[in-house]
Amino acid sequence: MEQISTEDFQVIDNCLMIKLPEEVDHHRAGFICENADRLLVRDEVCNVVFDFENTRFMDSSGIGIIMGRYRKIACFGGRVYAIHADRQIQRILMVSGLNKIVEVLV
Amino acid sequence: MMQEISSKKRELPNTDSNKNEMELSFDAISDNEAFARVAVAAFVSHLNPTLEELSDIKTAVSEAVTNAIIHGYGNIYGYARPDGKRLPEAVIHPGKVKIYCLLEKDLLHIRVSDQGVGMADIEQAMEPLYTSKPELERSGMGFAFMEAFMDELEVESHPGQGTVVHMTKKMGVGDWIDSEE
Asked: Going from the N-terminus, what domains does chain B have, and what CATH number goes with each?
């Protein structure tokens, strides 16, 4: 399975783009949160984009990742987006109610 | 309470050819979360499950196993790092997570048990968004996901005596998209 690396976190304009790994679970959540937060403290970053292109599995740990990042940027008017989310991922976002705070772009 | 459940299970006659059992026991470390959910998914693969069913089962197993590892045994750190190194603060508390699966025709029973710290207030733990470890930035949706993706969920736990999560799901019952909308 492909490992996530620091290259999967990129700041483009005012957006932090996070390319999520194939499986988002508790095992991988720590590394994602650490790296995201390292870049989120930069002044110019106000939006976060989660790219699910390679992601085939996500559990509530992924919901925790998104909720945590949302809390950090929402107070400054930042938005959270989800792109390339397949049917399973969209369902997870829906069941958790996260589709209310995350804009899912298909 | 926990003894009752296991003795009840053992009374089930195992002569019926439509029954199929599986047991797993593994270390309570985050590396094994993926192994556990894939193993259970593989166990039901001969039923030709839909992608949705497999995804449901994998998510539910992942939630139960992650709960056992983080809350039961206190192994709160996810170890995955690109360099394969573990953080120095990632102390590993020893313990085993056990999974027992029983397939009765198209009815799948999954029991995930641990011998960890257990819970005093199960109802509170099962509340959506409740988490006993808010500093970990976890969503508190674990039990809610198990309830949403499986047909039945029973939780038994006592402080100091570990936790048993029992889930059932009927396989091969249509597409979730249809039933949802």
From this structure: 2-7+19-173 (3.30.565.10)
